[in-house]
């Protein structure tokens, strides 16, 4: 690694000052530290958010569940309140990486990083979540902007994410065995405004699938999506799977997710 200074602020206000001065925010470090070890990133100052209590926790507010940005995956997975309200989100968190990753990785870190095969972005899009920062509230539909790109401005911290409670929801992914990321992951949600479907792992970033949403809004059943095609031209292709294979997987995972949501 390159030389850097390390700060561990105890308050959100102190962290914001350091971030606005150019400090690089450190959440769980699952991506950043690996990038630093490979010398793909060389921040001059790390700002560790791990000692800020107001950035952690899970609570219900009205018809939404609010999760602090520094809440680790393991706590999301094990939350009794979340399991009762949005069991699909708790199950998603329980399927991220391995035990070590779930113990260190955080919701906010994953959302801010926006890896194109990450699980949480699919949940945010499908559930119509809102990302809360030190400056504003950003709808998930406006937050994710492509490969590792988000609406976050320099010096802006994610403080929490609020998830509206759906009628039914489920997430199913086809796991890439080496990384445990999603080769394709599909999150389906039945909401008061109709069905929402988000796909991760298939391209340059998470996206909503209009065809699947239209089919499920008409009939929220596995059969309804059986004939819905996915444009393979929008899918990525690599040694793990071709674009055509990923496009096929979207339909398969969507059917399984709907069946799981109805179970």
Automatic annotation (TrEMBL):
<keyword id="KW-0274">FAD</keyword>
<dbReference type="InterPro" id="IPR016167">
    <property type="entry name" value="FAD-bd_PCMH_sub1"/>
</dbReference>
<keyword id="KW-0560">Oxidoreductase</keyword>
<dbReference type="InterPro" id="IPR036683">
    <property type="entry name" value="CO_DH_flav_C_dom_sf"/>
</dbReference>
<dbReference type="InterPro" id="IPR002346">
    <property type="entry name" value="Mopterin_DH_FAD-bd"/>
</dbReference>
<dbReference type="InterPro" id="IPR005107">
    <property type="entry name" value="CO_DH_flav_C"/>
</dbReference>
<protein>
    <submittedName>
        <fullName>Xanthine dehydrogenase family protein subunit M</fullName>
    </submittedName>
</protein>
<dbReference type="InterPro" id="IPR016169">
    <property type="entry name" value="FAD-bd_PCMH_sub2"/>
</dbReference>
<dbReference type="InterPro" id="IPR051312">
    <property type="entry name" value="Diverse_Substr_Oxidored"/>
</dbReference>
<feature type="domain" description="FAD-binding PCMH-type">
    <location>
        <begin position="1"/>
        <end position="168"/>
    </location>
</feature>
<dbReference type="Pfam" id="PF00941">
    <property type="entry name" value="FAD_binding_5"/>
</dbReference>
<dbReference type="InterPro" id="IPR016166">
    <property type="entry name" value="FAD-bd_PCMH"/>
</dbReference>
<dbReference type="InterPro" id="IPR036318">
    <property type="entry name" value="FAD-bd_PCMH-like_sf"/>
</dbReference>
<keyword id="KW-0285">Flavoprotein</keyword>
């Amino acid at each position: 690694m390159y030389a850097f200074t390390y700060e561990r602020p105890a308050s959100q206000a102190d962290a914001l000052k350091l971030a606005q001065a150019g400090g690089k925010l450190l959440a769980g470090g699952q991506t950043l530290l690996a990038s630093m070890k490979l010398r793909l990133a060389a921040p001059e100052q790390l700002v560790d958010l791990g000692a800020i209590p107001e950035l952690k926790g899970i609570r219900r507010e009205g018809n939404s569940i609010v999760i602090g940005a520094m809440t680790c995956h393991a706590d999301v997975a094990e939350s009794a309140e979340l399991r009762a309200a949005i069991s699909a989100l708790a199950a998603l968190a329980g399927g991220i990486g391995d035990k070590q990753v779930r113990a260190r990785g955080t919701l906010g870190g994953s959302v801010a990083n926006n890896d194109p095969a990450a699980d949480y972005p699919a949940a945010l899009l499908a559930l119509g979540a809102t990302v809360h920062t030190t400056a504003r509230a950003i709808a998930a539909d406006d937050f994710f902007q492509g490969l590792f790109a988000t609406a976050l401005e320099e010096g802006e911290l994610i403080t929490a994410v609020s998830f509206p409670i759906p009628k039914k929801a489920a997430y199913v992914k086809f796991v890439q065995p080496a990384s445990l990321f999603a080769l394709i992951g599909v999150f389906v949600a039945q909401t008061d405004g109709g069905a929402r479907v988000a796909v991760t792992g298939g391209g340059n970033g998470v996206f909503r699938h209009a065809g699947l949403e239209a089919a499920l809004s008409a009939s929220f059943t596995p059969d309804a999506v059986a004939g819905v095609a996915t444009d393979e031209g929008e899918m990525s292709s690599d040694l793990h799977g071709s674009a055509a294979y990923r496009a096929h997987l979207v339909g398969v995972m969507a059917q399984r997710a709907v069946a799981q949501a109805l179970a």
